[in-house]
Amino acid sequence: MNFKKAAAIVAAAGALTALAIPAMAETTLYGSARLATFWNTNQPGYATGTAKPETNTDFDLRQQSNSRFGATATNGDLGGKVELGLGLGLGGGNTTVYTRLIYGTYKFNAGTLLVGQTYTPYWFLSDQVAFDDNVNNGYGSLYDGRQAQIKFTMNNGLYVAAIRPNGKAAPAGTDAMNTVSASETFFPKLSIGYDGKVGAFAFGGGVVGQTYKLMLNEKHINSVMGYFHGKVQAGPANIGFNLGAGQNLGDMGIAEGVAAANSATATEETFTVSALVTAGFTLAPTMKLNAGIGYVTTDGKTAAGVDWKKADNKLSAYVNLPITLAKGFSITPEFTYQDQLDDNSATNTALKGKKDYIYGAKWQFDF
After folding, report:
1. What is the average pLDDT across 56-77?
2. Above 70 in pLDDT, residue 9?
3. Which three-class secondary structure state does DSSP give residue 308?
4. CB of 257 within 8 A of CB of 269?
């Protein structure tokens, strides 16, 4: 897709947004162009006892997949937001246009009702910019994508959200009768939690879970996770954290998790613990220093009921230096280290996990 076609799609989306949210008193358009210039030195994974493979280094310069164009609108108690992604993606190729966010809100005496597609309430992002602003997704952020949901948030911070089932429970594959053949799902993913603030400490936590029946063995696969996150600001410094623990997180689409192992007669649960710590310091009005590390460990059994030889664990650490060159224009040099550590394979072989050393910079224009 060339630039003219992309621009036409964006213009049409903006027009449709204006029609879909009539008579909005205030409408704001915004955009963000993001370009990645990074090297990645990769150490492939290998089995214990085999020769260590050579590293491979590649340089990439591309428009990031999270470049965006959006609009927000308000009219009294009603609000709305539409945000489109415009980017090449990690694989390169032609520019893609996709929906990042689209939702409406209604504020009334008891709280706020949100209906549409947005981020899930247990997601906690870091300042990591490698891999198209990955923000530790899969390494402590508890990310499961931008999901369709109905969320009600009370004025005191309590919330409940009915979220589209994800992972293996998501309606995907169909049989000849156009019904889902791999699983049966009767309820949405459900999250109940609280977000609040005491002084300079903003925090939140809750539980999320989903269930579905696997047609392979007629077993119900239950996923549940508890989470707690927070961030404290102390002058020019800030410290944040995110914790999550639960079973079968891969079955409900949490990037940190591993799905349960299934056979024709049994289901073996997995248990995951995820942690993320971030820190930042403002060096000058136009310069910050950020760092963070995320760690995830999962233990479980094979479908035959055999304990994994080693837990599957991984980490991702970063340090970067966002520099504002002009209003709306910044460059962020960064170094990221990712290590799969003990990578438990499908054959229950503990692999020496692959490593990635990512170094370069992100360029960003906001308008």
Report:
1. 94
2. no
3. coil
4. no
Contact 115, 186 (CB under 8 A): no
Determine contact, residues 248/223, Cβ cutoff 8 Å: yes
pTM: 0.87
What's the chain's average pLDDT?
88
Helices (DSSP H) in the chain: which residue ranges? Answer: 3-20, 130-133
Confidence of residue 320 (pLDDT cuts 50, 70, 90): very high
Backbone phi, psi, residue 9, to 5°: -65, -45
* Residue (of 278, 260, 276, 279) closest to 268 by Cα position: 260
**Can you tell me the distance from the alpha carbon of 347 to that of 47, in angstroms, rounded to the nearest whole number?**
11
Size of the chain, expressed as the number of residues it contains: 367
Q: Cα dist. 196→154, 156, 254, 301 in Å? A: 11, 8, 24, 38
- Going from the C-alpha of 94 to that of each of 6, 89, 130, 205, the distances in angstroms are 10, 9, 21, 40
> Residue 177: its pLDDT value, please?
42
Nearest 5°: CA angle at 20, between 19 and 23?
65
Encode 307-317: b = buried (16+ Cβ within 10 Å), e = exposed. Answer: ebebbbbbbbb
Q: Do the Cβ atoms of 267 and 248 come closer than 8 Å? A: no
Q: State the distance between the two ends of the chain, measured CA to CA, in whole angstroms.
A: 23
CB 291 within 8 A of CB 278: yes
Q: What is the pLDDT of residues 134-165, one digit of tens each?
A: 999 999 999 999 999 999 999 999 999 999 98
Is the model's pLDDT at 18 over the cut of 50?
A: no
pLDDT at residue 35 tops 70: yes
φ/ψ of 281, rounded to 5, equals: -145, 130
State the Cα–Cα distance between residues 83 and 119, nearest whole angstrom.
12
| Number of Cβ atoms within 10 Å of the Cβ of 367 | 11
The residues facing 209 across adjacent strands are: 190, 224
Q: Is the four-CA dihedral 293, 139, 188, 163 of positive or negative sign?
A: positive
